[in-house]
Design brief:
Helix content: 40-55%
Strand order of the largest sheet: 2-1-7-6-3
Number of helices: 14
Structural class: alpha+beta
Distance between the termini: 48 Å
Oligomer: single chain
Order of helices and strands: HEEHHHHEEEEEHHEEHHHEEEHEEHHH
Largest sheet: 5 strands, antiparallel
Length: 363
């Protein structure tokens, strides 16, 4: 049994991600329930309005750049017909249900994705957002803790030179952010990692032996070549690698994201890699759901027929000329260009004209 457009609408509203759909002219046409809750809006108050009328910049914030950043992204989607994954932006919002409400600080990670019509023109834009305000605040708090920790570590080093205490304090901050930290010495083939790093790979404690090759051994075969290429690219000073690994404890496949920088010796050869690592499996699953939604919307659009434009019709017999130059009865033409179906009967005037005897008897 195929799903109806009403079914798609109900499924869309119940999606667990905050998603809004706008036309190419930036008029909002739909929003999931989670989106409405996240952005402090109501469906009846935003559908049919331009997105920037619903979400203006805070007039009291002279440094507000959310409006312009989103505008640039949407213009790129329309111009280049590609998905645009935006960097984290600060875009404050206010509760549209409260006329006295003030703007509230919000940080977002938006993704804008085009949906094409049959002519590969952008018909809709899917705006998916992630509210990372709490994460930004936590990072700010973590940074303050990190700075304070560095001061404390400096005092401890001066007093005791206790490296173990310094590492333990650093791990507290890293564990709070659920992030692993690592460093590979390519000359001596050694590695330093935080405990969270090894835990991402399924280990309960730090492993004695580790290095770049051991890391690559945990990568799924399909991603190994890509990982080697990115980590060995001598032309860049920073990198971002997203790949799949196999955890050692339960053999599950997880997505990781690792970014960092390269360090060179005087000859320009890379001798050290340093970076952070995160488990991004949930984010990858969300992206997969978004791609599935786009495919479903495009399939639904492919089955929608619309009759428009000028129809060349005979003034006498009322037949319609098609694009090939052939004349068709009007019901045949409309039936092949829309979802309409015809049933035939006679109006009273035609019935009396064609069958006068029968009509008179009936009267």
């Amino acid at each position: 049994m195929e799903l109806s457009l009403l079914d798609y609408e109900q499924i869309f509203k119940a999606l667990p991600q905050p998603i809004m759909i706008m036309r190419a002219d930036l008029t909002i046409v739909a929003a999931s329930d989670v989106y409405l809750k996240t952005t402090l809006t109501k469906r009846e108050e935003i559908v049919g309005r331009k997105v920037f009328d619903v979400f203006p910049d805070d007039p009291d914030d002279v440094d507000a750049k959310g409006h312009q950043a989103l505008k640039n992204s949407l213009e790129r989607v329309l111009r280049e017909k590609v998905q645009d994954v935006m960097a984290t932006i600060k875009y404050d919002i206010k509760n549209t249900c409260d006329s006295n409400a003030e703007f509230e600080e919000r940080h977002w990670q938006p993704v804008n994705t085009p949906v094409f019509d049959e002519h590969h023109e952008v018909r809709f834009i899917i705006n998916q957002v992630k509210d990372v305000t709490d994460i930004i605040r936590e990072h700010a708090t973590a940074e303050r803790l990190r700075q304070k920790g560095k001061q404390m570590e400096a005092q401890i080093i001066l007093r005791t030179q206790d490296v173990k205490i310094r590492e333990e304090r650093l791990n507290v901050v890293l564990d709070a952010s659920n992030m692993g930290v690592w460093e590979f010495d390519l000359v001596n083939q050694t590695a330093w990692r935080s405990l969270r790093y090894d835990q991402i790979f399924g280990y309960q404690s730090l492993q004695t032996d580790w290095g770049l090759e051991i890391f690559i051994d945990h990568v799924v075969p399909e991603d190994k070549e890509m990982v080697r290429e990115k980590l060995s690219n001598s032309a860049v000073d920073s990198f971002l690698v997203e790949c799949r690994i196999i955890r050692v404890d339960d053999q599950s496949i997880r997505w990781i994201s690792s970014q960092g920088s390269t360090h060179r010796n005087e000859a320009g050869t890379i001798v050290r890699l340093m970076g952070t690592i995160n488990d991004v499996t949930e984010r990858k699953a969300s992206e997969s759901q978004r791609e599935m939604l786009i495919s479903q919307l495009q399939d639904a659009l492919a089955h929608v027929k619309k009759l428009s434009g000028l129809l060349p019709i005979c003034a006498s017999c009322k037949m319609v000329r098609d694009d090939g130059g052939y004349w068709n009865q009007i019901e045949v033409y409309i039936g092949s260009h829309s979802e309409a179906e015809f049933s035939h009967s006679l109006c009273p005037g035609c019935a009396e004209k064609l069958y006068p005897g029968i009509v008179k008897i009936a009267k």
